[in-house]
Structure formats: structure tokens, C-alpha cells
Amino acid sequence: MTGSSEQHLLRSAISALSDAVPGDLRRSPLGWAGVREWEAAHGIELPEPYRTFVAEVSNGSLEGASVAHALLPLGGLPENWQSWKADCWLSPEPFDGTAVRKFTEPFPLEEEWQWEYDYYDHDEHSPLLHGIYQNGSVLLGGNHDCEFWVLVVTGPQRGRVWWLGDGCVAPYMDAGEESEPETDFVAWFQDWQADRGWWAEHLDG
């Protein structure tokens, strides 16, 4: 893909993202200096179009009449992230929501994992479960006590949005359905702001 084509796709994505949230419900953009400072501090470069959206349009969003869910500011954590409930966590080691997140460590999965239906081996699965929640992603938002959305920033799933649930972790879109990770965040953000998608009935139930 040529540079001009990439720029055209990026600008189209930013336009779609901008249309998804009204101006009065946007947080102030972080600016390119702020984005680069955050990236340098954490040793990564954010995937597009999220990177440009945060820098130029809005560093997160607010809930409002036309927006169902707030998008967290870059590096932000929802309140319920730090108060994990025991019945959401199968690992014998409690989830530490205050621990430093490991952005440079790859997100450990490439396909859905429903551990509530698998035989759960604590020694084998606990480190993987901790890695899913701590490694290679930035948090985008959350619903209820045990369900969150993340954008993968490191590893083979870079640029894709994943749902972290209580007993299941799944990509928002099947990689086979969309060849470009950039479209993944745009589609998720539009559905998240409008409260529609395969997850909406589950999350609101």
C-alpha cells in the first residue's frame, strides 16, 4: 500500500471516528507532543487510527444523550478495574488492578478463549490470564464489574480491539473478516458510542 493510499485511509478513518462523537462530548486532544511523550515513556508506538484520533480529535469521550459509552483517555483505567470482584476471577492469585501495565509485552492471544468451559489448571492458566489483562494493550472502556474493552498495541493482534469478559476473551472482529486492523477500531468505536453490536444485549442484560 502506498503512502498516499495509507494517508487517505487514515483520514477517512479519522473522519468516521470524529462523526461518531459530537464535539461537546469530546475530551481535549492530547496533541502530538503529548502522544509522543506518552509513547516514549512506555516504549511503544500506538496503532493508527487510534493514535491520530487521540492526538488530533479527542483524548477519550464523555457519555451523553447521543453517546452511550465513554471512551477512556489514553492510559486511563475504569474505576471497576481496580476493585476486582472475587467471583469474576478464577485464578487463585488476585488480580491487581493497580499493578504497572506491561505495554511492551505482547498480548498473548490470537483467538477467542472461553476458560469457563475449559478445564482450568491454575498453574498453567493463571499466568496467561494475568497476561491477557496486563500485557500489550490500552484500555478503551468497560461495563459492569468484569467486562472491558482493550486495544492491542503489541504483538500479532496489534491494532485490534478485544473484549475481556468474565470467563471469555474474544476479538471484536474476526481477523478473517477484515484484513486491515485499522478498520477494527473504527467499527468498534462507532458501535460502542451508539450502543449497538453483538455484545450490547449481553452487556446490558
Pick out its properties.
globular, alpha+beta, 205 residues, 10% strand
Mean pLDDT: 83
Radius of gyration: 17 Å
**Helix fraction?**
25-40%
Strand order of the largest sheet: 1-2-3-4
Which structural class do you get from the secondary structure elements?
alpha+beta
Low-pLDDT stretches are: none
Terminal CA distance: 42 Å
From the spread of the alpha carbons, the general shape counts as globular
Largest sheet: 4 strands, antiparallel
Number of strands: 4
Helix segment tally: 6
Strand content: 5-15%
Domains, number: 1
N to C succession of SSEs: HHHHEEEEHH
Q: How would you characterize this protein structure?
A:
A four-stranded antiparallel beta sheet has the order 1-2-3-4. With 205 residues, the protein is an alpha+beta fold. The chain has one domain (3-204). It has helices spanning 3-20, 31-42, 50-57, 122-134, 181-194, 200-204, and strands at 137-143, 147-152, 161-164, 169-171. A hairpin with an 8-residue loop joins strand 2 and strand 3 (161-164).
